[in-house]
Design goal:
By secondary structure, the protein is mainly alpha-helical. It has one domain: Ferritin. Helix content is 44%, strand content 4%. It has a two-stranded antiparallel ribbon. A two-stranded parallel ribbon has the order 2-3. Helix 1 packs antiparallel against helix 6, helix 2 packs antiparallel against helix 6 and helix 3 runs antiparallel to helix 7. The longest helix has 29 residues. The two termini are 33 Å apart. The structure holds manganese (II) ion (2 copies).
Length: 294
């Protein structure tokens, strides 16, 4: 089961401008084949479906624990998309076509299907799909897949970074490049303990260091590329059997930190009256408050 904390894993900057086309590109990192929905659901289903858990518990703990971190990553990418879309249109009389900017934007669904917020889909408007989940039941194969998935996710994050210049998007990608780097090393080390093959020698994929992306620096300077968070009050303690030794790139010590990062506030999204979201008249607020709070 899950506990939920109403915080994002990092504090996102306050956007000065909307950028609906950047939001459309960032959708790939949420609901694309290599997006956060995919890493979340792959690790989630592999943890649900794990056979022989008590015999090889450190691998179960690793996959289950990383799944919990990925849940926070979909929150963070969704918050980014929401901030990029906020301010795309201005309130106005329906006859004045206040949603006209939606016609010129890459993803018209943001303007028709939602109140200018995140969709569970990719940058081309396709839905996230359950068949993106690979859960073969073979531990070596599933770990190899997860290593591949993290490297594919990294490739696509970098390409989106090269596409969008908005500071909210780049802050989010900088953080997720660091955290995805932890996961790629973790799955490589899991394969290494299982098989003796030095999988970390394949890294980085693609062949570019995180240091090329300025937004990774504040997080790497705090050592976040060497920390695996243990996302549970009491469980998944055997991740320390795998997350141990040194980081393959800088040689620093790998550490498990008990509990989640301090994180930052979940941005409060203002109403968008021209989309009727959330759709109540501010004049009704005192009456709603009277019913709720007596
Ligand atoms: Mn992730
Ligand atoms: Mn990951």
């Amino acid at each position: 089961m899950f506990l939920r904390i109403d915080r994002l894993q990092i504090e996102l900057p306050q956007p000065k401008d909307a950028s609906p086309d950047s939001a459309a590109a960032v959708q790939e990192l949420l609901g694309g084949r290599f997006g956060e929905m995919s890493t979340l659901m792959n690790y989630m289903y592999q943890s649900f479906n794990f056979r022989g858990r008590d015999q090889v518990k450190p691998y179960y703990d690793l996959i289950a624990n990383i799944a919990a971190e990925e849940l926070g990553h979909i929150e963070l990418v969704a918050a980014t998309i929401n901030l990029l879309l906020t301010g795309s249109t201005q309130p106005g009389d329906p006859a004045s076509a206040p949603l006209a900017p939606g016609v010129e934007s890459r993803n018209t669904h943001h303007f028709i299907a939602t109140g200018q917020t995140a969709l569970c889909g990719d940058s081309m408007g396709g839905s996230w799909r359950g068949d993106y989940v690979f859960s073969s039941g073979n531990l070596k194969l599933d770990l190899l897949h997860n290593f591949f998935l993290e490297c594919g996710a990294r490739t696509q994050k970098i390409r989106v970074y090269e596409m969008v210049q908005h500071p909210v998007a780049r802050t989010m990608v900088g953080y997720l490049l660091v955290r995805g780097g932890v996961h790629a090393v973790a799955y490589a080390k899991a394969l290494e303990t299982l098989t003796g093959v030095n999988v970390t020698k394949l890294l980085p994929i693609p062949e570019v260091t995180n240091r090329k992306f300025p937004e990774t620096r504040p997080y790497e300077e705090k050592g976040l590329h060497r920390i695996l968070y243990r996302f549970s009050p009491d469980d998944y303690r055997d991740i320390t059997r795998i997350w141990t030794g040194t980081h393959p790139e800088d040689g620093g010590p790998l550490e498990v930190q008990d509990g989640p990062p301090p994180g930052g506030p979940v941005p409060d999204l203002p109403p968008v009256p021209e989309t009727f979201a959330p759709g109540f008249d501010p004049a009704e607020l005192p009456e709603i408050a009277r019913k709720l709070f007596g």
